[in-house]
Design a protein that fits this description.
By secondary structure, the chain is mostly beta strands. The protein is 10% helix and 17% strand. It is built from five helices and 33 strands. It has a 22-stranded parallel β-sheet, with no helix packed on it. A three-stranded parallel β-sheet has the order 18-20-22, with no helix packed on it. The chain is flat and about 135 Å long. The relative contact order is 0.03.
Amino acid sequence: MNLTFLDLTRCQINWIHEDTFQSHHQLSTLVLTGNPMIFMAETSLNGPKSLKHLFLIQMGISNLEFIPAHNLENLESLYLGSNHISSIKFPKDFPARNLKVLDFQNNAIHYLSREDMRSLEQATNLSLNFNGNDVKGIEPGAFDSTVFQSLNFGGTSDLSVIFNGLQNSTTQSLWLGVFDDTDDKDISSAMLKGLCEMSVESLNLQKRHFSDFSSTTFQCFTQIQELDLTATHLAGLPSGIKGLNLLKKLVLSVNHFDQLCQINAANFPSLTHLHIRGNVRKLNLGVGCLEKLGNLQTLDLSHNDIEASDCCNLQLRNLSHLQTLNLSYNEPLGLQSQAFKECPQLELLDLAFTRLHINGPQSPFQNLHFLQVLNLTSCFLDTSNQHLLAGLPALQHLSLKGNHFQDGTIMKTNLLQTVGSLEILILSSCDLLSIDRQAFYSLENISHIDLSHNSLTCDSIDSLGHLKGIYLNLAANSINIISSHLLPILSQQSTINLSHNPLDCTCSNIHFLTWYNENLHKLEGSEETMCANPPPLRGVKLTDVKLSCGITVVGIFFLIVFLLLFTILLFLAVKYLLRWKYQHI
């Protein structure tokens, strides 16, 4: 058999006997989550030639000797979360050489010894997850002999235990965050000195509290390249922090800054990625707060209640290498002409759900010659401004979702005429009633158009006549009867979604219904494509509709009777006329 993935989650399996999977040679992923297992035979996993991923979550396992070691030589990931395991010591014959992911989250592991870890010495670049175990002790040297891809000690209350136990260890990523229900001990600068005795590139301290936050807090962060301080209750970062020259990515989301300058960006001269999302307080962008970050490539300032009447050149001064900018879900922003002149290398700009006030007739985006993705979802734009999108020669993906067009119509002359390079266009939820036949003529490279959740009728399909091979989403509109002359337009597209339309399933729409069942391979959302009329067929899927719109036996009978009566009446009429004619000769 060619089965490669088998999910047996919560199937009340108690026993797995010898050679149960003997016939499944191609099986690579086996999920046994949530089964109250009593017994697994030593050869129960024999059969698959390359079993790589095994999920034994929530099975009541308390000892790793319960797991059959036969035929696991190719195992790459083993998930043992939410069991009752207290020791990670594997049997001597357990094949750990190819393991890349070993997940022990939410068990009862409180102490890690050198002997426990010795069984994993064969593994390289292992990702080891102890999240939710609250480890209280680690034998010195336990983690010396293996280079790890990641270590996760999330939820551990006392981090001094972790830092002391990981001396001389090497890991790409170290996750030391906590959760809302964790009663954790505050982090001190002295505690973080443990980082000087280990090699770490990425560090996550999510939701931790700092007892004494100062420039000396970071003195052992010299090798750190990624630092996540999400929700660490910070109101500012101290100036004069030394030794963070290697830091490339900094996450400061869900903190308590009043102004962007409070992060003291000059501390991070090599930073390429900065994320400050969901700040607890209204964030003021200030002026030039990030100008020392000349290498910054990605900046995420979404969900911060940012408000500015003149954005964004002063605020983003000297960010000439910026490629991705996210200002979505903020308060109103005023944009002047060339509002992003300081960021000429932008490739992605996300302004979704931020009300934009465009000051002047010229485009605020006109200098962004490399911009490929522009998200203007629900920005309350003046879509009648035909120059709004001028100067974007490389734009490929544009979302205007939730913006309204005058009189609910996209006219022949519109703002899309300046973005002929577009490949993906999102116009859903724009309250559209109609589209001019030539509205999309300038979109020569388009491959995806989303017109869902509008009030378009079948007449709007005419505007797509020149397009071929595109993905077309017309879901949730007001389309009921599609005339036969429009069917060739649909036929020349690659994928069409007509779900959630009030489709007519009477003989008036028989040409479309026939076409629909002949082109199911092109149609998306067929499970939600249903009849709205006539009432007896309301809610029936189009694929289940069988209409007979020819002449029935009863119809033929009445037709014959009609023709017979018509012939008799005609004969009597001719006879009457002839008699009348002869009487008047």
